[in-house]
């Protein structure tokens, strides 16, 4: 039976109930979950923490501009195959000449085509029941990738190149598939149609406080409060690149070594704000609007 | 059952079809749907495909399942208060509640929303958290049910606990019946929501057991969605602003020129050569090439243009980062004489001749209100503009001024004779781009 219990997060990961429900729904229906949202809202974290806390196998496919379905599913290693078949010939020749020592093919047999199939994350995930498959940042992929993927995902079956071996999975043992996107490019409608869609909203102060608490439970409450005030104030400035969860966590990491008083002073002085503000234009804007001393903008 | 759902949802601009219904049914068979809030949740996952769908989806849902029609620009709260469904629901609540308690309308709407959006997840939480509804409670409820009929809440609770036993057909029938009742305004009896309804932990239960079922924010979300412009489809004829900038960006994408050239694919040649056992035959691949060369000329002089400059800059900056191509921005004041300026403050001058030395494949966007004193549009200015239009065949003017004023502004009319002018709206940009592409050549 597929792992379809309702998962609400772990000690380290605070899963928004809406997201948890969408995830549960996707698993129950055996469909991929497509998560979109601002960068730094924890899209990628969900499957990672889920796999960890449920002790499931995790297979990750980070998408890039050169991604193709071959990498994702499996490819046939022609070079190795050629090399091994040459070795066979060589060995035969050596034997003829009465040489004992043989060249090794590393346990691979050129007769067995399956030995030369390099399985990608998808084939591996489908091969292990109830695993978790993460397809990260699909919007980075070439235009046709999502559609190719669609076919592969909806058939629950891959045929390995050359060897013809079939890797299939029953609907019950379907891996939990999570796809993330930063919306840098629109995904094809047909693709979205096959996924359960969830858009992560930026967490509000309350939720953010809980998130911080999960990461740095020892942090002084007052420090967190001051940092949150500054953080949400910065987000309201309408910056080109508004700071996200990741950035505030980094910032707190920077100040957490200090004593609470020092930390508050550092935050109020916007020390190490380079962790939050990522462009020069934004930095100038923050400087102008908050009127702080630019010398404090340097990150130690 | 539910066969009219796709049609109804499509009128809200949502992508719903027969597969939507099939998926919904599948979700029911898998036990994902036991309350109306679940229907909302599941349908949201299936139907909503981008954040902008949220608003129309919520609207479509309220119209279809609750017969609450949210008018354009109306808040969800107002629509609910106005609806027959809410009035009926209110009656039953008030019947049960202590009439002496002052009831705040806004509170009541919140309660209503909580009930509508109550999901089985919330129920699970309550049940596991409080263990309120153990067997003895249920038995008691049954007894009460036999004697007097004023305790429908507990009875429903019991049924709720056994909802998993309900067959799909029963569930479907139930939904259909409830929907019909909701439609036939004289309902009475059981409603989707309310005492005999599908949400067992409703108001009565909450009051009696002293727990408040808050939902997981579904109600809050819905309320937010209806009031939040981010969740509504962009008015494509509204002047460019931060909300519709992405729609504009999508329109402007059309200026990318695609070309394809055949070239020798070395890795593929090697790969297939190896497959053939060392026989190498050249493999060709077509290399797609996207080209985007744009010059943007922004009128940043005077107060009339001030509100638009930032958005326009944002638009083209986004365009640059998203498509990462050749984009040049210059500034001018009202009209172009011998110079354009490289910086916003208009201190670094660049002669128009230099601009004219750019490659003729550049597409040129003028952005300005074209409102100026008639004497500013003198022969020197007109010559410069005409030279630009002559050199760059794909030149358009985008104007933030509402279309209806164009006819009455002399300088706009003159400018329109020099180059095609379009409103600075997503729709206008789209038309401008189409015009550019249609011209051909360049």
Please give a structural write-up.
- The complex is a heterodimer of chains A (300) and B (442).
- Chain A is built from twelve helices and nine strands.
- Chain A has 300 residues and is an alpha/beta fold.
- Chain A folds into three domains: 17-73 and 120-200, 3-Layer(aba) Sandwich (Rossmann fold), CATH 3.40.50.300; 77-113, no CATH class; 205-286.
- A five-stranded parallel sheet of chain A has the order 2-5-8-1-9, with helices on both faces.
- In chain A, helix 9 (221-236) runs parallel beside helix 11.
- Chain B folds into two domains: 5-231, no CATH class; 248-256 and 292-439, Response regulator (Rossmann fold, 3-Layer(aba) Sandwich), CATH 3.40.50.2300.
- In chain B, the strands form three sheets. Chain B has a five-stranded parallel sheet with strand order 4-3-7-8-9, covered by helices on one side. In chain B, strands 1-2 form a two-stranded antiparallel sheet. Chain B has a two-stranded antiparallel ribbon with strand order 5-6.
- The longest helix of chain B has 18 residues, at 306-323.
- Chain B is flat and about 80 Å long.
- Mean pLDDT of chain B is 72; it is low at 129-165 and 184-215.
- Chain A binds chain B through residues 6, 17-18, 20-22, 24-26, 28-29, 36, 78-79, 82, 183-186, 189, 192-193, 196-199, 240, and chain B through 15, 19, 23, 26-27, 30-32, 41-42, 45-46, 48-51, 54, 119, 121, 124, 216-218, 221, 250, 271, 274-275, 277, 317, 322.
In short:
The complex is a heterodimer of chains A (300) and B (442). Chain A has helices spanning 17-29, 45-54, 69-72, 78-96, 121-127, 145-154, 189-193, 205-215, 221-236, 245-255, 260-268, 280-290; strands spanning 33-37, 58-62, 74-76, 117-119, 132-136, 157-159, 166-168, 176-181, 196-200. With 300 residues, chain A is an alpha/beta fold.
